[in-house]
Amino acid sequence: MLGQLLxxxxxxxxxxxxxxLGFVLIHKGTGVVHFGYGDQVTFGxxxxxxxxxxxxxxxxxxxxxxLFASAFLGxxxxxxxxxxxxNAPLLVQIxxxxxxxxxxxxxxxxxxxxxxxxxxxxxTSSSFDLGGILLVPANLAIVGVSLALLCLLFFLFERTxxxxxxxxxxxxxxxxxxxxxxxxxxxxxxxxxxSVIATVAGILVAPVLTLSPEMGLIGIKGxxxxxxxxxxxxxxAVVGGILLGVIETLVGxxxxxxxKDMISYGILILVxxxxxxxxxxxxxxxxx
Length: 288
Known about the structure:
The chain is mainly alpha-helical. It has one domain (11-216). The protein has helices at 2-30, 37-55, 59-82, 90-112, 137-159, 161-171, 173-178, 183-209, 218-229, 234-254, 262-274; strands spanning 128-130, 133-135. Strand 1 and strand 2 (133-135) form a beta hairpin. The N and C termini lie far apart (51 Å).
């Protein structure tokens, strides 16, 4: 039974990890906590359906178009909202992300309706037995994509010139500008990449969580996973997501299912009090 529980918990954890990756990427790059990110995950999944309705495209071509559309959405969010606020107080930027999430959620509620929509699995949802543990290919896809995205981001930041430019701009905007790095272009790229990750996450989790405007609440779990792993560590986002999924599943199975969702908030409070930098994060002190 424990093996089956762990297999199920890793799937839930991978969902949280995907959302946490977007939180960490935006915060690591721009210093902003995007509290509307959960709604952007939902919006990304709905994009596939909207594109199918408007164009009549089959599912997979609609997914590809949605990924490009989400990249444009990330560009528009940065250049239309966050860039004009780049010198505003941090609280103002956070409120802007909350407003953005609300606008996305209410637009979906008005345009697509409040009821849930069916969404196809990328792989079959039929389970198969592996050593007495039932595994579902659709759930394995979520785990695989989370790890693949982490590897892709690591390669981007460690092995490419664009990735090194992003790191340079994040560490020292003035210094990066002096050596010819377009800081504005870097930040725009970060928002575009995070937006694509949100759509990927939405496409993967929509069949599991039921696609509705309220699916954006998954952002809370992703935020807790990012805090747990370390809000400035991409690896920590994945570790935090998996660990949160395991803890939730074990608490729900062995203590009480009523505590399954509550445990996330308990973990958030505990980490903030005991280790605010998270498991793999680096504590940074800023002079204000």
